[in-house]
Specification:
This protein is of the alpha+beta class. It has helices at 3-15, 26-58, 62-80, 86-108, 114-128, 131-154, 167-238, 242-258, 265-292, 305-315, 317-323, 339-355, 414-424, 449-452, and strands spanning 301-304, 326-329, 334-337, 364-371, 375-382, 429-433, 439-446. The strands form 2 sheets. A 5-stranded mixed beta sheet has the order 2-4-5-7-6. A two-stranded antiparallel sheet has the order 1-3. Strand 6 (429-433) and strand 7 (439-446) form a beta hairpin.
Length: 456
């Protein structure tokens, strides 16, 4: 560490302390500015002191030389003493500036730097104390100017330089000095009041962001814990809950084989109901297990949606022919995602469009895609039975059914799959009524950064 750095650390530590506050408000910056004033005043004063003392000695101004030497020693005391509080040091420096201003004005006249010191006191006070206190220096300047005017008018002291003044000239000078002092105080008051409000707002914003971040962190921990519980539940569902179902199914098979031909019609009906319930329960558990595993076992990859759609249509070929459905699709794009999940998304939406067909109408499904600013917009447009507006927000809830099982088969989990898959990719899914009858399922999937760039 060099000498300047040690000197700087000592002055700054002796003035504002070695530890900076968490909130750097205007009070901190005023103190920091004052510390820098002391830091640079000592070496600069040393450079200026010797020529000033020599000039004062040559011109026979011994009193002025003593005042300048006293001012420098006072600066040393203010800078290096540890016994004075910060506000006391600031006050001493203001008094010292006034002493220099009066002395230089008396001995050198308006052509000397004394009048600049009077204005500098106002600026220094506004910057290191507060703009409100700077108005006090305007009042002091007014009193000093009035005092100098009286001395000039009545020649109260035998000073040679008083012959250089005139009362009218001093009045003009004083008015301009007071005008500059007053407008400086007013403008700095306006600036610092705005800065203080900005700093307070920024501090409050940081505090709220910190609180929100802390709350978000706690929520993430909670979500992670809930996900772990869901995975544990899924494991239980896939193993422990499946075992009683297998037992019940085996007992039903055993009862039927052991009592074949001896059961009456009601007993056979009860066994069929029992078998159907076991089958539905197994489907629900399997669906719940698959729902919990969405996005956990695969990695992001480039997915050719057109190839994926062709695969899905091939898998559903028998169902499509059975329904005599007509399916039209745009040329689908490539995107980054989870291939198995997107395939399941397509399969669920196509299956629903065919399953919920309007009686007496040939199922017709149009698959459209549109490239927007930041995402792909997919639209699955069917001519089925449609969804009432009051149910459009509920259809994506898990196990939500709008129709009895006797009319339409299913577990009520298919559209919940779709929503989770779309949200897994950072998109949204919703349903709209088709003006021509049926429903329009729309979902967005984000573009990559390269796809967001405009085409050349």
């Amino acid at each position: 560490m060099n000498g300047w750095q040690r000197y700087r650390n000592y002055v700054m530590g002796n003035t504002i302390g070695p530890i900076e506050p968490n909130l750097k408000d205007l009070s901190f910056w005023r103190d920091y500015l004052f510390a820098n004033v002391l830091l640079y005043s000592i070496p600069v004063s040393l450079v200026a002191l010797v020529p000033c003392l020599v000039a004062a000695y040559i011109n026979g101004q011994d009193v002025l030389a003593c005042i300048e030497l006293f001012a420098f020693c006072t600066m040393l005391l203010i800078t290096f003493t540890r016994r004075l509080r910060l506000q006391v040091k600031k006050t001493f420096l203001v008094v010292l500036l006034y002493l220099l201003a009066v002395s230089l004005t008396v001995f050198l006249g308006t052509f000397g730097p004394g009048v600049l010191y009077l204005w500098a006191v106002t600026i220094f006070t506004a910057l290191t104390f507060s703009p409100k206190k700077a108005y006090l220096t305007v009042a002091v300047n007014c009193v000093l100017c009035l005092g100098f005017g009286v001395v000039i008018q009545y020649r109260l002291f035998d000073l040679p330089l008083l012959e250089l003044y005139s009362t009218s000239g001093w009045i003009v000078f004083s008015v301009n000095l007071l005008f500059l002092s007053l407008i400086t105080s007013a403008l700095l008051d306006l600036v610092f009041t705005g800065l203080q409000k900005t700093i307070v707002r920024e501090a409050n914003l940081k505090r709220r962001l910190k609180e929100k971040g802390k709350h978000l962190g706690q929520m993430l921990i909670t979500v992670k814990s809930q996900n772990e519980e869901l995975e544990r539940f899924a494991y239980i569902a896939s193993h422990d809950l499946q075992e009683p179902l297998r037992t019940i199914s085996s007992l039903v098979d055993h009862l039927e084989s052991q009592n074949q031909g001896r059961l009456d019609e009601p007993s056979q009906m009860y066994l069929r109901f029992l078998r159907q319930s076991v089958h539905r329960m197994r489907a629900l558990i399997t669906g719940l297990l698959e729902y919990s595993r969405i996005g956990k076992e695969n990695a992001l990859e480039w997915v050719n949606c057109q190839t994926l759609l062709e695969t899905v249509l091939a898998d559903l070929d028998t169902f499509i022919k059975e329904k005599e459905a007509e399916i039209q699709a745009d040329n689908l794009p490539q995107l980054q995602g989870y291939a198995l999940e997107i395939k399941q998304l397509f399969q669920n939406l196509i299956s629903n469009a065919l399953k919920f067909q309007r009686p007496g109408t040939q199922p017709c499904l149009q698959i459209k895609v549109q490239k927007l600013d930041k995402h792909w917009l997919f639209s699955f447009i069917d001519n089925g039975i449609g969804i009432e507006p009051k149910f459009q927000d509920k259809v994506f809830a898990i196990f939500q059914r709008l129709h009895p099982k006797s009319r339409y088969e299913g577990t009520g989990i298919g559209l919940a799959y779709c929503r989770k898959i779309v949200e897994l990719h950072g998109g949204k899914i919703w349903v709209e009524p088709n003006p021509e009858g049926g429903s329009i399922f729309r979902f967005s999937l984000p573009l990559t950064k390269e796809q967001c760039l405009p085409e050349a």
